[in-house]
Design goal:
8-stranded parallel β-sheet; methionine synthase activity; amino-acid biosynthesis; alpha/beta; 22 strands; about 775 residues; about 40% helix; 5-stranded parallel β-sheet; methionine biosynthesis; 5-methyltetrahydropteroyltriglutamate-homocysteine S-methyltransferase activity; metal ion binding; about 10% strand
Length: about 775
């Protein structure tokens, strides 16, 4: 019985790739240094999978930014502004597309399906000249082969690539991206031909869009594309991999009828209904790659349940055609549990990170082949029993409070227009008020202080003093820049979710459970293992301290319940919405304590609300109902004069704009500039928005500093579709990843632009 891994984390157990990338970007190391770190990581990953007995080991899943950008490079689809003139695409062009440079902005970045991973969105049109411009897939296959490991090269499939792209600026919105298939398939043929020549016997094409609701012509595109590739694929075994959800019946029919394909991969963790499709009919002689080990969470597999599923599938597809697999790439989970030396032993026994999931996949494959490791299976059963019966998982008081939420929609008692009037009397803000999203740059010194305080190397008194000095610096800078509504900069926080999780019951924390979000950006998701409550105030001390330093409004900064949920590893023993309501009640307590502490503007970030939207439209309404309700629970008890902000970023929001309005926040700040101001099209199409809104005026994920003229131009575009009395001026997102040398001039230009337009509006009266 064979085993297969869809993909593996790239960052390394101690974030080696992150530090190598940042050193390269800062000019402290060479391209050769970066490539050596990358090659060492790849080598260790391949060896680990090989040593575990994995038969189908992936290659070309190791990206310096993301796999879609790698595909853009492979196809030579570089937007003209980056000055690419042909030949093999180097790191300079590659990273300019990802991050921008001093003269041109980056390409748009958005969420990868419903995960917290991001990808760089290809910009395509009829004029793009595709060419085979990156030989990375072939080079990595050869690299693994030289190490004695025969791998399965992985490519983003041609149809998914096009459907995950967007029409480039200036291209008619009605342009059919699938019309480019005849132009990109010749490049795919070149790559596949080279892989065959290099000795590859298997290839994996990821076509995850097949789990979406696709119209008939999009499904036909798969049929046409694979028919065109059939002769090139001849002589190769081909896996088409899907993940993240059930595959619809029509898509299943299309997929399993594709020409030239040897096997099909399905997510059987999030796609349990796919099992019924397989049992009802699976093409004879084809391989089934059964994704029974969860690639998106950190809980140990239920061996008994998985084995039962696999045995049932064995009867459908045949013993020699069933392959045990992960549900998706392990990119979305942490690297190795062995590095968690301080994690509570009982909770640790309930978990499996990527390295352990490789072992799980192989243990299940061996058990199916009659080589069951009885000791491993017994330990697995004992861990699952321990988790089910542990008293630390359940809190009756929390469950009763969450159950009592039923029967109310938890709306504030007055309209948003009445509240905005009350808030303006209290805050006395100018038109086009300026603010930032929350965080300010996290300096090396600041990180050192936090690290040493956690390690008990500095006293609490010295820690508070250091953080207070940092807050004062941030407050003084904002006053100097003449920003209207201030933030304290969040110097006490390493991560917006981790910070809150550390102070809530029901959460556990890892030391090295890092997961890549984009580029070099890694997050360390908390683990929600039990019922959630707030033992004591979490932010009131710092926010009140910051407010005492200024007469200007100071925002209290919180992370919302849906974002905490979506950016955590969530317990899988109760519905997600029940956990979310518990978190909402905890945040509600904090909001009310901030108000009592004199904070008149409170921001409850819901950056990940859109990210959690299910991939199938039939499931949208239920999710949006409980997600929006959770947000309203957090602030339903505050006074009209207390202004509630929320923030959202790096997703497509247009399709949920009515749910965003239903959140009933007083002000929303929302990513806009990096996505070519796509958000504004909603308002051009007639959607009325009566609350305050701040579409981002510049992209903080690029080191580029926009001019005041550029920002003013953006604000004027906003004023064409939004009333001046509701418009705010702010960056796209928080500033923690930037340097002060970038932040100060960018914010100065932002404030100057706001003042310029205020004066123009005043003189036009």
């Amino acid at each position: 019985m064979a085993s297969h891994i869809v993909g593996y984390p790239r960052m390394g157990p101690k974030r080696e790739l992150k530090f190598a990338l940042e050193s390269f970007w800062d000019g402290k190391s060479s391209a050769e240094d970066l490539q050596k770190v990358s090659a060492d990581l790849r080598s260790s990953i391949w060896k680990q999978m090989s040593d575990a007995g994995t038969k189908y080991i992936p290659s070309n899943t190791f990206a310096h930014y993301d796999q879609v950008l790698d595909t853009t490079a492979m196809l030579g689809a570089v937007p003209p502004r980056y000055g690419y003139t042909g030949g093999e695409i180097g790191l300079d062009v590659y990273f300019s597309m990802a991050r921008g440079n001093a003269s041109v902005p980056a390409m748009e970045m958005t969420k990868w399906f419903d995960t917290n991973y991001h990808y760089i969105v290809p910009e395509l049109g009829p004029e793009v000249n595709f060419s085979y411009a990156s030989h990375k897939a072939v080079n990595e296959y050869k690299e693994a082969k030289a190490l004695g490991v025969d791998t399965v090269p992985v490519l983003v499939g041609p149809v998914s690539y096009l459907l995950l792209s967007k029409a480039a600026k200036g291209v008619d919105k009605s342009f059919d991206l699938l019309s480019l298939l005849p132009k990109i398939l010749p490049v795919y043929k070149e790559v596949i031909t080279e892989l065959k020549a290099a000795g590859a016997t298997w290839i994996q094409l990821d076509e995850p869009v097949l789990v979406m609701d696709l119209e008939g012509h999009k499904l036909q595109a798969f049929t046409g594309a694979y028919a065109e590739l059939e002769s090139t694929l001849s002589g190769l075994n081909v896996i088409v991999e899907t993940y993240f959800a059930d595959i619809p019946a029509e898509a299943y029919k299309t997929l399993t009828s594709l020409k030239g394909v040897t096997g099909f991969g399905f997510d059987l963790v999030r796609g349990t209904k796919t099992l019924d499709l397989v049992k009802a009919g699976f093409p004879e002689g084809k391989y089934l790659f059964a994704g029974v080990v969860d690639g998106r969470n950190i809980w140990a597999n239920d061996f008994a349940a998985s084995l039962s599923t696999l045995e049932a599938l064995e009867g459908v597809v045949g013993k020699d055609k069933l392959v045990v697999s992960t549900s998706c790439s392990l990119l979305h989970t942490a690297v190795d549990l062995i590095n968690e030396t301080k994690l509570d032993a009982e909770i640790k026994s309930w978990m499996a990170f990527a390295a352990q999931k490789v072992i799980e996949v192989n243990a299940l494959a061996k058990a199916l082949a009659g080589q069951k490791d009885e000791a491993l299976f017994s330990a697995n059963a004992a861990a699952l029993a321990s988790r089910r019966s542990s008293p630390r998982v359940t809190n009756e008081g929390v469950q009763k409070a969450a159950a009592a939420l039923k029967g109310s929609d938890h709306r504030r008692s007055t309209t948003v227009s009445a509240r905005l009037d009350a808030q303006q009397k209290k805050l006395n803000l100018p038109i086009l008020p300026t603010t930032t999203i929350g965080s300010f740059p996290q300096t090396v010194e600041l990180r050192r202080v936090r690290r040493e305080y956690k390690a008990k190397k500095v006293s609490e008194e010295d820690y508070v003093k250091a953080i207070k000095e940092e807050i004062k610096k941030v407050v003084d800078l904002q006053e100097e820049l003449d920003i209207d509504v201030l933030v304290h900069g969040e110097p006490e926080r390493n991560d917006m979710v981790e910070y809150f999780g550390e102070q809530l019951s029901g959460f556990a924390f890892t030391a090295n459970g890092w997961v890549q979000s984009y580029g070099s950006r890694c997050v360390k998701p908390p683990v929600i293992y039990g019922d959630v409550s707030r033992p004591k105030a979490m932010t009131v001390f710092w926010s009140s301290m910051a407010q005492s330093m200024t007469s200007r409004p100071m925002k209290g900064m919180l992370t919302g319940p849906v974002t905490i949920l979506n950016w955590s590893f969530v317990r899988n023993d109760q519905p997600r919405h029940e956990t979310c309501y518990q978190i909402a009640l905890a945040i509600k307590d904090e909001v009310e304590d901030l108000e009592k502490g004199g904070i008149g503007v409170i921001q409850i970030d819901e950056a990940a609300l859109r990210e959690g939207l299910p991939l199938r439209k039939s499931e949208h309404a239920f999710y949006l109902d409980w997600a929006v309700h959770s947000f309203r629970i957090t602030n339903c008890g505050v006074q009209d004069s207390t202004q509630i902000h929320t923030h959202m970023c790096y997703s497509h929001f247009n399709d949920i704009i009515h749910s965003i309005i239903d959140m009933d926040a007083d002000v929303i700040t929302i990513e806009n500039s990096r996505s070519d101001e796509k958000l504004l099209s909603v308002f051009r199409e007639g959607v009325k928005y009566g609350a305050g809104i701040g579409p981002g005026v510049y992209d903080i994920h690029s080191p580029r500093i926009p001019s005041s003229e550029e920002i003013a131009d953006r604000v004027n575009k906003m004023l064409a579709v939004l009333e001046q009395n509701i418009l705010w001026v702010n960056p796209d997102c928080g500033l923690k990843t930037r340097k002060y040398t970038e932040v100060k001039p960018a914010l100065k230009n932002m404030v100057d632009a706001a003042k310029l337009i205020r004066s123009q509006l005043a003189s036009a009266k």
